[in-house]
């Protein structure tokens, strides 16, 4: 979105492992990305935790496929993730999405209040993250994947289609 807000960044993320990493600690530490049109990959290579460099380096990546599939790969996780302190920075792994609405206050019409709505979160069990492991997220089918109202209404999706007046079609 066009608005950056501290709470929005805390609720909108694709995080194979979020912690207080310091990529500038070592010349060997890198954060690199690759986009070949089919998959977008971000890799954290030999990164260290700020102030806990003696724990060792972490290497992991997130791969976002054009099909909607997301894969987190963990090559080096030198300590159990549960041992990483969340004092300086939250420790999270998973997916989250949110949006922000600017509301005017009835008392002061020229003011705007930001309200953030987190509408979906998938948290990984961080105790299961270890070296040489991976997690795969596969998207569920949606009605928008169908080419006609007939195929949508007769599909075996697990939700009820309904008419959208704005788009003039079933969703």
From TrEMBL:
Belongs to the plexin family. GO terms for cellular component: membrane. It is found in: Membrane. This is PLDX1 protein. InterPro entries: PLXDC. Its main location: membrane. It is a single-pass type I membrane protein. Keywords: Membrane, Signal, Transmembrane, Transmembrane helix.
């Amino acid at each position: 979105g066009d608005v950056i807000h501290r709470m929005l960044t805390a609720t909108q993320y694709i995080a194979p492992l979020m912690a207080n990493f310091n990529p500038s600690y070592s010349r060997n530490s890198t954060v690199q990305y690759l986009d070949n049109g089919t998959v977008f990959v971000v890799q954290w290579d030999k990164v260290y935790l700020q102030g806990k460099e003696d724990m060792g380096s972490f290497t992991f990546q997130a791969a976002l496929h054009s099909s909607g599939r997301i894969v987190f790969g963990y090559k080096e996780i030198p300590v159990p993730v549960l041992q990483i302190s969340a004092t300086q920075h939250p420790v999270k792994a998973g997916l989250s999405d949110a949006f922000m609405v600017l509301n005017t206050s009835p008392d002061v019409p020229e003011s705007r209040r930001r309200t953030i709505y987190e509408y979906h979160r998938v948290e990984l069990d961080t105790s299961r993250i270890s070296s040489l492991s991976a997690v795969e997220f596969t998207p569920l089918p949606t009605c928008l994947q169908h080419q006609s109202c007939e195929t949508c209404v007769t599909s075996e999706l697990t939700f009820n289609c309904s008419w959208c007046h704005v788009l003039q079609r079933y969703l």
